[in-house]
Specification:
Elements (H helix, E strand, L loop, with lengths): L2 H24 L5 H22 L5 H13 L2 H26 L5 H23 L1 H12 L14 H4 L2 E4 L1 H6 L1 H8 L5 E5 H11 L4 H19 L4 E5 L9 H12 L3 E3 L2 H9 L4 E3 H7 L9 E9 L5 E5 L5 E5 L8 E12 L2 E8 L3
Parallel strand pairs: 1-2, 1-4, 2-3, 4-5, 8-10
Antiparallel strand pairs: 6-7, 6-9, 7-8, 9-10
Helix pairs in contact: 1-2, 4-5, 10-11
Length: about 350
Amino acid sequence: MSIDFIVRIVGMLVFALSAGYWGFLFSHENAVNQIAAYSLGLGTVGALFGLIATPYFTILPMRGIRRLLVRVSAENLLAGLSGLLAGLLVAALLTFPLSMLPDPLGNVLPFMAVLLFSYFGVALFVMRQADIMSVFATTANKGGSEASTTPNSAWGQGSRTILLDTSVIIDGRVADIAKTGFLPGTLFITRFVLNELQYIADSADSLRRQRGRRGMEVLAELQKVSAVSVRISDIDVEGVREVDDKLVILARQLKCPILTNDYNLNRVAELQGVVILNINELANAVKSVVLPGETMGIAIIQEGKESNQGVGYMDDGTMVVVEGGNKYIGQTKAVNVTKVLQTAAGRMIFARPEEQ
């Protein structure tokens, strides 16, 4: 027996009895048959109303509140409850002096103070949650103990939530970046991302299966990194099936960035105002800076697409196309940089062999 059916039956009985009682009061001076007719008629109307309308002001609002609470992050929920308590405390201090005012101010103003200070308390704590909690964390860490200054103890470590995409987990570089400490905050991994990762790991395609298992290993490695906090949540987005769409909607609700290297997700998220942290862009940003006219040594390993071209790679993986370098394949040759191009795939360097 479903909860909806039980609620409807209870609502039908309550409204039937209430309406029948009102029918009895309305017709208590009439004859007995009229009293029965009024009570039975209003009771029937009340039963129908209760059977149909009870879920709309009982179960459905509760489900809406539950969905809202699931979408709210723990930090926002904690800040909101703290602000509510602070607002109620201030309102309680003002209740007595306000109640001493002459009527009707003495009766109305205390109630208005409770509403206003509760609202302002919640709004203030939610908007400035990072600043307020950082003040508390700084006060708590003033003891100067070495344990209190570890990254995991500070509020600033957990105040920033970063959503992880499936592609960035499979990529694996996020674990190396996390070890360096350049990802302060909480790495937030949703259940639907884990489900997609598990689906890839169970794929019939051996390459996809290997990539999925690599993602599982990366998650296990991330949980061992002390420089970051990893949080796995069952939070979900209803009405949406695609994982990328769910991530974008969730990032907008939580007001947090998405860590990814998926180009399509990057573009879609930016169009909707979501901050994207792209590992490929980070990798390009930290590559060695080479200017036209500089000289460097490159091991030419293969021919290029055009005639007379040779191709080599720098230590960071940047491709170097050497004009006239096909005759030096297998050799390390000093080359002069002629042009540097930044493309969507990364940085590409063009050079010529240094004249002897």
